[in-house]
Amino acid sequence: FAFPVPGKQYKRMLVFMTSAEGPSRLRFKLAYVDGTFEQREVLLPDYYNDAPAGNTNIFSLAADLAKWNASGRMTERDHHHIHGVDLHPDARKELGSVQVSKTAPGYLVFWGATGVTTN
Fold first, then answer.
1. Are the CB atoms for 94 and 10 separated by under 8 Å?
2. From CA 80, how far away is CA 53, in angstroms rounded?
3. I want to staple 116 with a disulfide (CB 3.0 to 4.6 A). Which of 5, 12, 54, 95 is the partner?
């Protein structure tokens, strides 16, 4: 899937996701309005696992969440995460869109994205 962003210069572009039943191997394509692009490869951990220590690309947006079943009953009380990925766009260029593709098994939930502009 892909999503457009307002054509601005971003110092940060953050996406928020959950991977379930294993990690998700992700490829992000950052497309700039000048026609150039960059790619980022990220292994998003399973939502049961913490973000990797020392990794400047992946963080836990929400940690130790409970797990609920379809009947509204708690099945596990903690240790589930919504992870964030910082894509580190080129702040000198105007970003136009972000494309996300997944190559490893697992379920991926996209929660949203936000950016921090340079001005």
1. no
2. 16
3. 12
Q: Which pTM does this prediction carry?
A: 0.88
Rounded Cα–Cα distance for residues 108 and 28 (Å): 14
pLDDT tens string for the chain (119 positions)? 999 999 899 999 999 999 999 999 999 999 999 999 999 999 999 988 889 999 989 999 888 787 888 999 988 777 788 999 999 999 999 999 999 999 877 799 999 999 999 97
- CA–CA dist 18, 102 (Å, integer): 13
How far CA 100 is from CA of 76, 78, 115, in Å, comes to: 30, 28, 16
Q: Which two tokens stand for residue 9?
A: 């210069």
Alpha-carbon span 117 to 103, nearest angstrom: 30
C-alpha to C-alpha distance for 20 and 9, rounded to whole angstroms: 33
